[in-house]
């Protein structure tokens, strides 16, 4: 963690869990006003502060450093870090909280006066390039808007975005010519040869168009742009930095012509001249994965100037955030609303206004009757992000996500659903086939608008594609052998969970044969569970467990994925009761959970593992495999222990500060965890149609559901002292169980918690009151 991650005690105290009722005569700020886009831009959050519309194709944000050959890419995965002193420019595409870098397309930077070298320059050497220092106190951001004063450029820069466009506004200090640098070389996760080809040209009407194809995290990714400035060009220069020939008017290695209307190559940079301006310069840019004409059509589809686009996007964010009304102290309001904001950025729109998009086969397709979305970080987001979207977004939007996954499967050269997809391209990052639980959970919770039979067939196909991730061995042996496939222990249990969700959807569709097959496969997690040590372990193809064994070891490409035996031994979300029995019963399970949280890490060094952050013992909140673990005490009949652990996690892992996320937000998963937890429940096993009850962190919340009904959560007496649940009522009647059914939630009503200073050791302890486990439900 960076030094600023450790705030003063007064700042921590400001994030108290509750401070009593709000003053009656003071209305709390709106959800929109409560969002702080700078949360997560420092520390390990990897979020960006720039302008984006809900699920927008464009994420227009500042890049402070893209020099991966000098600095590791990981800290700058989103292009921006809060503590960096300079801004390199403003590019059109970014990930929110990913653990990997790419994008950063079509960077623009204002330049005032004499044109500086058309290179970014060194952050430590002012005016060595077009990069600029900036005044941190001048920086401001809100949903759909970002602004900053660029000191060296003597320019006020503002950003806003629509669904498929970004708009920049530059207020140059008068008295010198205004220029823009358009750098088609700049990218996040840069290395030699990343840009395979690019082009730029000026059309007769003054529209600037171009494209580039890159080889980065996603291979052969093509993206096109169309740009319209509000003032006419007075001159321009297109240069190819690969051709090391000095050129008049440009200080640096390049070749080009000031009167060239177009240029193509692998290292292009453009200078756009506007002369002396007497008003702000607005630049509207649209993107397309299809072609330049598609980008122009997208540009025309969202008319209006900067202020009009900003107003429309603000209204969209107010509506999206307005589905949740929260009463809570200001620090908690800010954290929860910002978490909701971060949860509403992806999956992002990727089809053009005419429905065309480029798919995983690199061919152009057309989405008929739906909007194609991409950017699916499925290993992360199946857990809480997608279940949250089912509650806060219209059914049509969620159906579009499913139809996008199915369209990608149909266009996949391998015939399987996406694993980790962005801009229509597959990255093969992470493990599992986690599009499967996203589809199953949506269908089981009532989302329609897609072909359910075709969806089930795609799910089965993805779970049966032998060459992927050791699936051939998994289907043959009932587990993934470590001598045939890396990260085998993790893959075995994640496949088993995904298989259970296939079985659940097959049962719902009346496909008994498919359900029986995958119910059997769902029990394969047992084949890698070592009852002797009490840990999930990797097995060899001869059936023996791999030795030596260290449950604390974390190494990439070894037995586990971004974790170790401590985290992955709890990954049986569909059958915790069976796993507890293998551990020796409820008491043994609770002892092991306590041992995980209380583990002494003082002699362990995980600095080699980038994603291991937010440690509480061997619980790692900064990475996803741990996210359900605090809720497991309730499966052992001790829900008050879940309440204790949630207090510990929320108090230490979330703050309303730039370093306020303990780990990568991972396209909204870290944020979705907080939204659910703040409301008092969490989807431990998507596909079960249950939410495990924890404890609330807000005084009152009203959730407006997609069907128009409202579900209210009230935490009576919530305070720092009253952190335990005394009793729970649903619509005025006692709720004796430790879970909430989805159908109860979407019916609307009130979930009321009465909070108290001491644990209630009798509530929700009976076996019949515990959340879903497959074996307890009669599924073997």
Structure description:
The structure is a single chain. This protein is an alpha+beta fold and 780 residues long. It has a domain at 43-308: Beta-galactosidase, Chain A, domain 5, CATH 2.70.98. It contains 19 helices and 41 strands. The protein has a nine-stranded antiparallel β-sheet with strand order 7-8-9-10-21-14-13-12-19. Strands 22-36-37-41-38-39 form a six-stranded mixed β-sheet. A hairpin with a 6-residue loop joins strand 1 and strand 2 (59-63). The model is unreliable at 1-25 and 245-256 (pLDDT under 50).
Give the gist of this structure.
The protein is an alpha+beta fold. 25% of the residues lie in helices and 23% in strands.
Describe the structure using short key phrases.
carbohydrate binding, GH-type_carb-bd, peptide-N4-(N-acetyl-beta-glucosaminyl)asparagine amidase activity, alpha+beta, 41 strands, globular, GH92_a_mannosidase_put, 780 residues, disordered N terminus, 25% helix
- Indicate the CATH architecture of the domain at 43-308: Distorted Sandwich
The CATH class of the domain at 43-308: Mainly Beta
Low-confidence stretches: 1-25, 245-256
- Terminal CA distance reads 44 Å
Strand content: 15-25%
Radius of gyration, in Å, reads: 26 Å
**Percentage of residues in helical conformation:** 10-25%
Averaged pLDDT: 92
Structural class, by secondary structure, is alpha+beta
The backbone outline, from C-alpha atoms, is globular
- Please describe the biggest sheet, giving its number of strands, its sense, and whether it closes into a barrel: 9 strands, antiparallel
Question: What is the overall number of helices?
Answer: 19
Q: Write down the CATH topology of the domain at 43-308.
A: Beta-galactosidase, Chain A, domain 5
Oligomeric form of this entry? Answer: single chain
InterPro entries: 6-hairpin_glycosidase_sf, GH-type_carb-bd, GH92_a_mannosidase_put, GH92_N, Glyco_hydro_92, PNGase
Signal peptide: 1-24
Domain Glycosyl hydrolase family 92 N-terminal: 35-288
Domain Glycosyl hydrolase family: 295-756
């Amino acid at each position: 963690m960076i030094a600023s991650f450790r705030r003063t005690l007064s700042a921590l105290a400001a994030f108290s869990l509750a401070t009593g009722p709000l003053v009656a005569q003071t209305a709390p700020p709106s959800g929109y006003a409560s969002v702080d886009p700078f949360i997560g831009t420092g520390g390990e959050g990897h979020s960006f502060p720039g302008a984006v519309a809900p699920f927008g194709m464009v994420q227009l944000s500042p890049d402070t450093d893209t020099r991966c050959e000098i600095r590791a890419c990981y800290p700058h995965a989103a292009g921006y870090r809060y503590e960096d002193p300079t801004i390199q420019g403003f590019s059109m595409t970014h990930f929110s909280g990913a653990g990997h870098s790419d994008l950063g397309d079509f960077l623009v930077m204002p330049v005032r006066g004499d044109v500086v070298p058309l290179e970014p320059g060194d952050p430590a050497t002012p005016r060595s390039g077009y990069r600029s220092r900036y005044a941190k106190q001048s920086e401001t951001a809100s949903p759909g808007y970002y602004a900053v004063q660029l000191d060296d450029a003597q320019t006020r820069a503002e950003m806003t975005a629509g669904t498929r466009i970004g708009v920049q506004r530059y207020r140059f200090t008068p008295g010198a010519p205004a220029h823009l640098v358009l750098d088609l070389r700049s990218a996040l996760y840069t290395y030699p040869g990343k840009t395979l080809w690019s082009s730029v040209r000026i059309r007769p009407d003054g529209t600037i168009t171009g494209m580039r194809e890159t080889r980065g995290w996603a291979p052969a990714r093509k993206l096109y742009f169309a740009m319209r400035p509000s003032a006419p060009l007075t001159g321009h220069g297109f240069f190819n930095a690969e051709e090391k020939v000095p050129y008049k008017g440009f200080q640096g290695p390049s070749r080009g012509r000031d009167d060239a209307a177009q240029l193509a190559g692998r290292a292009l940079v453009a200078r756009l001249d506007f002369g002396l301006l007497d008003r702000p310069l607005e630049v509207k840019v649209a993107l397309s994965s299809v072609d330049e004409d598609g980008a122009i059509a997208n540009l025309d589809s969202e008319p209006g100037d900067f202020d009009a686009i900003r107003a429309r996007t603000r209204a969209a964010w107010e509506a999206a955030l307005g589905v949740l009304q929260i009463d809570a102290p200001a620090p908690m309001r800010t954290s929860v609303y910002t978490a909701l904001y971060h949860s509403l950025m992806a999956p992002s729109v990727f089809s053009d206004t005419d429905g065309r998009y480029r798919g995983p086969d690199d061919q152009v397709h057309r989405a008929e009757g739906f909007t194609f979305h991409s950017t699916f970080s499925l290993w992360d987001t199946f857990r809480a992000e997608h279940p949250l979207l089912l509650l806060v977004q219209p059914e049509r939007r969620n159906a579009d996500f499913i139809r996008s996954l199915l369209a990608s499967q149909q266009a996949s050269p391998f015939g399987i659903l996406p694993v980790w997809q962005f801009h229509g391209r597959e990255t093969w990052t992470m493990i599992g086939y986690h599009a499967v639980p996203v589809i199953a959970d949506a269908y089981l919770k009532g989302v329609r608008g897609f072909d359910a039979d075709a969806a089930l067939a795609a799910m089965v196909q993805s779970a049966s594609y032998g060459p992927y991730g050791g699936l051939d061995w998994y289907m043959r042996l009932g587990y993934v052998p470590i001598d045939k496939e890396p990260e085998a222990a993790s893959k075995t249990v994640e496949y088993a969970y995904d298989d259970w969700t296939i079985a659940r959807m097959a049962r719902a569709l009346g496909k008994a044969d498919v359900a029986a097959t995958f119910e059997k496969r769902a029990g394969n997690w047992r084949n890698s569970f070592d009852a002797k040590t009490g840990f999930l372990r990797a097995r060899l193809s001869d059936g023996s467990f791999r030795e030596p064994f260290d449950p604390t070891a974390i190494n990439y490409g070894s037995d586990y994925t971004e974790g170790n035996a401590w985290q992955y031994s709890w990954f049986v979300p569909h059958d915790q009761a069976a796993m507890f029995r293998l551990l020796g019963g409820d008491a043994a399970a609770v002892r092991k959970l306590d041992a995980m949280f209380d583990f002494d890490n003082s002699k362990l060094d995980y600095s080699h593992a980038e994603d291991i952050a937010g440690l509480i013992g061997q619980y790692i909140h900064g990475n996803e495999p741990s996210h359900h673990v605090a809720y497991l005490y309730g499966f052992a009949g001790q829900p008050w222990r879940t309440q204790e652990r949630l207090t510990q996690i929320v108090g230490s892992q979330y703050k309303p500060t730039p370093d306020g996320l303990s780990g990568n937000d991972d396209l909204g998963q870290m944020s979705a965890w907080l939204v659910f937890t703040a409301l008092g429940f969490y989807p431990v096993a998507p596909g079960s149609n249950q939410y495990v009850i924890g404890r609330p962190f807000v005084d009152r919340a009203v959730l407006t559901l997609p069907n128009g009904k409202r579900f209210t959560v009230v935490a009576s007496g919530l305070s720092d002292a009253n952190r335990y649940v005394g009793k729970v009522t649903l619509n005025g009647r006692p709720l004796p169980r430790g879970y909430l059914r989805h159908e109860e939630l979407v019916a609307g009503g009130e979930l009321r918690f009465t909070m108290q200073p001491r644990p209630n050791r009798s509530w929700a302890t009976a076996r019949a009151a515990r959340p879903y486990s497959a074996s307890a439900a009669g599924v073997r």
